[in-house]
Amino acid sequence: MSATAATPSAAIPGLGRRIGSLRKERRWALITAYISLIVAAIVMLAPPLYMLLTSLKTSAEISNPVGTPWIVRNPTLDNYWALISDPMFRGFFFNSIKVTVCVVVLTMVISVFAAFSLARMKFFGSQVLATGVFLTYLVPDTLLFIPLYQIVGALGLLNSTWGLVLVYPTLTVPFCTWIMIGYFASIPKELDEAALIDGANWMQMLTKIFIPVALPGIIAATIFAFTVSWAAFVYPTAFITRPDEMPLTIGVVSQLIRGDTFAWGQLMAGALLAALPPVIVYAFLMDYYIAGLTAGATKG
User: Fold this and answer.
1) Co-location of 115 and 205 in the same domain
2) pLDDT string in tens for the chain (300-residue length)
3) Is there a domain that residue 163 lies in?
4) Do 48 and 174 belong together in one domain?
5) Which domain holds residue 107?
6) What distance in Å separates the CA atoms of residue 184 and residue 192, rounded to the nearest whole number?
7) CA–CA distance from 230 to each of 51, 164, 267 (Å)?
8) Does the residue 206 lie in any domain?
9) Which residues pair with residue 262 across a beta bridge?
10) Per the confidence metrics, is the pTM higher than 0.90?
11) Domain CATH for 159
């Protein structure tokens, strides 16, 4: 009896063989997963690593490479210092900050109120309107920038960062509203009824119940709006030609490429500096972003 209990595989014919087969399949699955992760990491990290190495090279070393380009023989920070000490580059950075802050604030105010009204204040056509809001996000900006160019031009906002503040919410508001609708719709309606019985109005319900409960979704939407407004390229390329009004994404490219002359070291340094703020934001708030996207998508 004890021998049978100690070796259950002996009591069931073929059990030990099946267990061994499962362990072998699990081992191969883990090996395949790790190989896939390693390949994906190499593919994803190779471009920024190459940018970093190039930004640490002198112009002479970039023009006349010796051996593999993945080795820096005379590392230098001159490319970074040349950009940071340039008033024009600092102007690009300030323009990006101004546009991003304004767009994020504008997007979140519109999205929170729109999502709350569509999710809770039911009215005729609210579901159709909610679907239309998300479908608007699916329209690529490459199709919208021509009519938007005419609108911005008619308003006299071409070659102005305020034109970007007006245009970027067309990209951020629909998606952020969709995320918030999913969060607001998941909140139990008993909270609404209890708040109404206690004499709360719609604004008090929004500020004291919905916003605190839906904070992960608000954070996810804020991160999305920040990323889109900071990294947008098509709209500023089409709407702005004055260097003093350019954001960082197009300012670095337009000023460091002169005809067929490319300042590769400073280009790579500028690209890395431009990518640094989103990297910092995602490094600290990645968990909130993933939770907000998944919850908003499934609850919607």
Assistant:
1) yes
2) 444 455 554 556 565 666 666 677 788 888 888 999 999 988 988 888 988 888 888 888 887 777 777 778 888 888 889 888 888 888 999 999 999 999 999 999 999 988 888 887 777 777 777 777 777 777 777 788 888 888 988 988 888 899 999 999 988 888 888 888 877 877 777 877 787 787 778 788 888 888 888 887 888 888 889 988 998 888 898 888 888 889 988 888 887 776 667 778 888 888 888 888 888 887 777 766 666 556 554 444
3) yes
4) no
5) 78-293
6) 11
7) 19, 11, 17
8) yes
9) 257
10) no
11) 1.10.3720.10
